[in-house]
Design brief:
The protein is built from seven helices and seven strands. With about 200 residues, it is an alpha/beta fold.
Length: about 200
């Protein structure tokens, strides 16, 4: 049985495949590369959609997979068998916290509202200095362009001062995710604000 890798990347993505075949291809590529680089995968535990693609590809290449899923989704999303670790939580809040605690960084592939929520929550925690883990947006075929445009609109409307206040490292291809992840792990990013600065903003 595989031993747990020292580094683990949490991948957020859809439980559907989406309309563009490039999304599933990116998920499979990322899963395979994680295994090849001995980086563990933390993901949502299901076997459907992009979640299933990234996990199956990682397992097929000999990688280590940790699935985290709330009890009420066990049947709906159909558990993926064969993962090295499976954590069934009582609710979504526990699921997200468990994924956060087990991962050394985060990456969002294309997905729906759930993926968006997870991505934005990690970005918010990063902005507020609650973590300094890498946060990578895999903007496959421009899927996340509307979100980036919304961030720019927020900046223009004065809700944050600059684009640097949203700590997202954008990449365009699945092959770029791991190099960015490793780069950010080495840079030891500091919190955007000190506790004193954050208190003054509240």
């Amino acid at each position: 049985m595989n031993t747990q890798p020292k580094r683990k990347l949490c991948v957020y993505c859809g439980s559907s495949h989406g309309e563009n075949p490039a999304y599933a291809e990116a998920a499979r590529t990322l899963g395979r590369l994680l295994a090849e680089k001995d980086i563990g995968l933390v993901y949502g535990g299901g076997s459907l959609g992009l979640m299933g693609e990234v996990a199956k590809a990682c397992l097929s290449a000999g990688g280590y997979v940790i699935g985290v899923i709330p009890e009420f989704l066990v049947r709906k999303e159909i558990l993926l068998e064969g993962v090295q670790e499976l954590v069934v939580t009582a609710n979504m809040h526990q699921r997200k916290m468990t994924m956060f605690e087990k991962a050394d960084g985060f990456c969002a592939l294309p997905g729906g509202i759930g993926t968006l929520e997870e991505l934005v929550e990690m970005a918010t925690w990063l902005q507020l200095g609650q973590h300094v883990k890498p946060l990578i947006l895999a903007n496959i075929d421009g899927y996340w362009d509307p979100l980036l445009q919304l961030f720019e609109h927020m900046r223009q409307q004065g809700f944050f001062k600059s684009s640097t206040e949203v700590h997202l490292d954008q990449v365009r291809r699945a092959e770029e995710v791991i190099p960015m992840f490793e780069k950010r792990l080495k840079t030891k990013r500091q919190p955007l604000w000190t506790p004193e600065e954050l208190e003054r903003r509240m």
